[in-house]
Specification:
Helices cover 59% and strands 7% of the residues. The longest helix has 45 residues. The protein contains 15 helices and 6 strands. The protein is globular, with a radius of gyration of 39 Å. It is mainly alpha-helical. Helix 6 runs parallel beside helix 10. The strands form 3 sheets. The protein has a two-stranded antiparallel sheet with strand order 1-2. A two-stranded antiparallel ribbon has the order 3-4. The chain has a two-stranded antiparallel sheet with strand order 5-6. Keywords: Membrane, Transmembrane, Transmembrane helix.
Length: 370
């Protein structure tokens, strides 16, 4: 009851934050959020869950319920999943939609979700062929936007790969490592019984399918397809130690797909062109906006490094100044006494010297005044 009272008191604040998040988004983003909320309300009925979700055994012949691939994505059972879905879709409308356009974002949305439905079904079919457990085909219900959330994380990795999310004692967490870390966390939560088994499966499927689409098939305004940049290769999802192993596994698969015609080979040429402004370098698979974005990131890193260097120089000069003042104070405490100027200007008194004759005959002393 206390939790409900706290939640009821914070409803105006939450409403304000959600309205600010979805205020300037497109109608497609608002439509997705509204449908997800309606799906959460419908999830209280078990019959609706059975009908709207993807059941691997019913997606295959003879049932062949293909229409469930268009309805499973807006069915969420837990409230925290609804909140995460709305926040992610809202941020997607703020960040990705201005770059891609509304049509491309909706195309990415539907292709990813439909692909996740079929790939997850194939995954459970493979497990069933090993275990012969029919519950994997008829008791598993695939639903939710976990696959699309993974796809959004891959798209954000492509757009801002080095954006710092948080600093930890073990290192920096950036968008580059976010898809793999969430997949590992989902597997661990499933292993301890805190998450459904479909969630890590859908997340892995969404990560793989979205990377394939963005890497090889997405059409850009310049007429090119995909993103063949080195920092968007599949082995770049993994730590540096594991990248050679992943590259060795993915390399033969990629060559087979190139021979079949499913994807394009990785170009290794760099084009140089002379222009009145200087030398222009164009790299295949890299869009001009990507080059500009990376240039801005490099300039930002350079300015941060220069500001850090100037701060260190300023602190060093300040410490040197403090040391010099300390030395001056120490010298002022040991002052050599000075005579007044009047005494130094007065003439010295006459000095009398006595001359003594050292001859054999004694003579009276003679006094000479100088």
């Amino acid at each position: 009851m206390a939790a409900l009272r706290v939640f009821s008191r914070n409803i105006p604040y939450l409403r304000q934050q959600f309205s600010a998040l979805l205020g300037n988004t497109s109608p497609s983003v608002k439509f997705i959020c509204v449908v997800v909320v309606i799906g959460y309300i419908l999830s209280y009925s078990d019959d609706v869950v059975d009908v709207l979700s993807v059941t691997p055994g019913y997606l295959l012949p003879p049932s062949f319920q293909l229409w469930s691939t268009f309805t499973f994505w807006f069915l969420e059972i837990h409230l925290w999943e609804v909140i995460i879905d709305i926040i992610t879709v809202g941020l997607c409308g703020k960040l990705i939609e201005p770059l891609w356009g509304q049509i491309e974002m909706m195309k990415f949305f539907f292709l990813t979700n439909i692909g996740v439905a079929f790939l997850t079904t194939f995954y459970y079919l493979v497990i069933y062929s090993w275990t012969q457990d029919t519950s994997l085909l008829f008791d598993i219900h695939v639903h939710g936007l976990a696959g699309y959330l993974a796809a959004v994380s891959v798209a954000v990795k492509q757009i801002m790969p080095d954006h710092l999310l948080i600093k930890t004692p073990l290192g920096k967490l950036t968008n580059r490592s976010l898809p793999l870390l969430i997949l590992i966390a989902a597997i661990l939560l499933w292993a301890v019984g805190q998450l459904e088994g479909t969630y890590p499966c859908m997340w892995g499927s969404g990560t793989l399918l979205s990377w394939i689409y963005l890497r090889f098939w997405q059409r850009h305004s310049s007429g090119t397809r995909g993103d063949m940049a080195d920092n968007f290769s599949f082995d770049n999802f993994f730590p540096t130690v594991l990248q050679p192993v992943v590259r060795g596994i993915i390399g033969p698969i990629h060559r087979c797909c190139v021979r079949v015609g499913l994807c394009s080979p990785s170009p290794r040429r760099v084009h140089l062109a002379l222009s009145p402004r200087g030398v222009t370098i164009s790299m295949p698979g890299v869009e001009p906006q990507d080059m500009e974005r990376r240039r801005q990131i490099a300039l930002k890193a350079l300015s941060e490094r220069l500001s850090k260097t100037s701060e260190q120089t300023r602190q060093k000069n300040l410490s040197t100044k403090v040391n010099m003042e300390a030395v001056r104070k120490m010298q002022s405490s040991h002052v050599i006494p000075q005579f007044p100027a009047e005494e130094a200007s007065q003439p010295a008194p006459p000095v009398e010297a006595t001359l003594v004759d050292i001859s054999t005959e004694p003579l009276p002393p003679t006094t000479k005044t100088s």
